[in-house]
Known about the structure:
about 190 residues; mainly alpha; elongated
Amino acid sequence: DSCYDREQFPTxxxxxxxxxxxxxxxxxxxxxxxxxxxxxxxxxxxxKHIQEVVDKYHSTALTNKRIAEEREKNRRENKTKRERxxxxxxxxxxxxxxxxxxxxxxxxxGKPRFAPPAIQEIRDCVSDHGYAVDPExxxxxxxxxxxxxxxxxxxxxxxxxxSWNKRESNKPKQQGTGFNRLMELAR
Length: 187
């Protein structure tokens, strides 16, 4: 394995060092393996099969390097020459987000989509129409449930506010409870 890892063949001394052979028996075992499975050539123990595998690895690595360099060169050259596809956005386009835009957005049909009102808009509507609705209660109720009416998204908050007013005006006046109720009865 050391020959594969190092991609070179050892001398006898290197082989003993690579195997960490210290005792006489270990050194003799390394020498046995070298003489049995390797061929001595110019003081280096070589093996034909290992040399073929290492050479093939180097050849493949060079081929892969050449292909990668050609691909990168073509990519750089063709980057500015290629035509844009039909669905591709133009370069340096405006941002796709609309976070900076008002929350009312036109639908395809031209009718604006629902945009939740500010509390001040609700207060103004309550005072303009003389509704008996708490504007903050209305806002926090619908803000908390995502401006849903049942399972559907709200379409018109002014109509929902009018419905709240009708419900409030149809409720019977609650008589006081506790201490206040006792004071009313005492009068």
